[in-house]
Amino acid sequence: MLLVGGYTTAGEDTPGAKARGISAYDFSSTDGSLRFLGFTPAVNPSYLITDRRRGIVYAVREVSESEGAALTAHRVGQDKRGKVSFELISEHTLAGDDPCHLAFAGNAIVVSCYTSGTLFVFSRREDGAIGEEIQQLTLSSSNGNPSRAHCAVFQESKDRLLVCDMGAQQLAVFDRGEDGLFLHQKEKDLTFKDACGPRHIALHPEGKLAVVNGEHLGVVHLLDVSGEKPLIFNTANALPERVIDEASGAAIRLGHNGKMVYCSDRAFSVLNSLRIDERAKKLIFRDTFPSGGEHPRDLVVSPSGEWLLSANTKDHTIGVFRIDPKGSLIHYHTFKKIPSPTSLAWL
Questions:
Q1: Model pTM?
Q2: Angstrom distance (rounded) from CA 151 to CA 199
Q3: Buried b (16+ CB within 10 A) or exposed e, 209-223
């Protein structure tokens, strides 16, 4: 099952918002087709993550604190006839503005709030419901621009959070102490001197490498995250040199074997593919593909590793691509009338 989050309220950055909440689709791994199953009303559930074992979807409510910014959890069920139901099992408001990303950190869940530059760590109960707020983290910037918390990933081998601070042009490092709380290790922060605007980060399956997509430059960074401090191994263009400063990069994902990298660019409505050469510790640009629509914000690889889907926010479509054995993308379908999709997650 594919779950789709989107923008429901129109704003300066979302003038065409038309989503109704969190939607569910049946996805065929045979031919890549989508079939609508149902939805639950929600306000700006612009990012989703799922606990597939428990059948739970967690979503942000991307609005300001004064408008009710929140983290929600729904249990998703499906009866014998295929009818889908959503049960809201917990909801927590946030003392931050514009939550835009979620990540698991062991049995905790981390919420990144873009505009306020804050992160919240919540426990999870045995049934998957959201527990107490464990910690609030605040980013700080020294370059004159306000911090922007856009994405966090948990590096299990180091019990560490890596946070993309787009305003500070940094990857901030938070190590978890014996008391279970994360502490900012500022001396370990990585500064991106090319002002790429680090937006999203993805960890290699082995946990020793990571890739970062820039929002302001059409580049992808390959990082060594195996040591005490993250280091840049290599930087590769994801767009032609003549237009890299016109980029509007968004999501980044790795293929199942960790050799291929896929990232989206909204300005040019394309998906870019790169290959990781682990021996040479470098990224090799492979190809660029039309995203199947306009303004691709998110993309996901199917659980089988055979398909890639793109969420095209501006024209309300989802592009479906077959991933061939060499990692190239073959466009199969563009599904229309999927309102303002911004996030895709499997359940």
A1: 0.97
A2: 7
A3: bbbbbbbbbbbbbbb
